[in-house]
Amino acid sequence: MVDNQLLGDCSFGFLLLLALGLIEKDGLFITAGLAMTIISVFALGGLVWAIVTSALLFLQHLAGQ
User: Fold this and answer.
1) What is the pLDDT of residues 24-51, one digit of tens each?
2) Domain range spanning residue 11?
3) Residue 42 domain-assigned (yes or no)
4) Per the structure, how many domains does the chain have?
5) Among candidates 7, 62, 64, 63, which has minimal Cα distance to 40?
6) Dihedral angle over CA of 29, 31, 33, 35, nearest 10
7) pTM score
8) What is the pLDDT of residue 7?
9) Exposed (0-12), middle (13-18) or buried (19+): which is 57, by Cβ within 10 Å?
């Protein structure tokens, strides 16, 4: 795994790998940046799904259903 101190604590660090690969025309960095960006998108999607599902269950509980 890539060190968070090097890339930052957000998914922009993974985009930096992609940008570095494009600037240097290095296929390894392009592939790594693209893979990490896709993984980040799926992880964020799962987080959003969990938050929305929890909110809906909470609202159903409040409504007494």
Assistant:
1) 777 777 777 777 778 878 888 888 999 9
2) 7-63
3) yes
4) 1
5) 7
6) -150
7) 0.55
8) 46
9) exposed
Query: What would the 3-class secondary structure string for 1-65 be?
Result: CCCHHHHCCCCHHHHHHHHHHHHHCCHHHHHHHHHHHHHHHHHHHHHHHHHHHHHHHHHHHHHCC
**Tokens coding 1:** 């795994």
Band (pLDDT 50/70/90 cuts) for residue 15 is low
Q: Note the pLDDT of residue 39.
A: 82
Rounded CA-CA distance 30/6 in Å is 17
Residues 6+ apart with CB under 8 A from 16: 7, 8, 33
Q: 21 lies in a domain?
A: yes
In a domain, 17, yes or no: yes
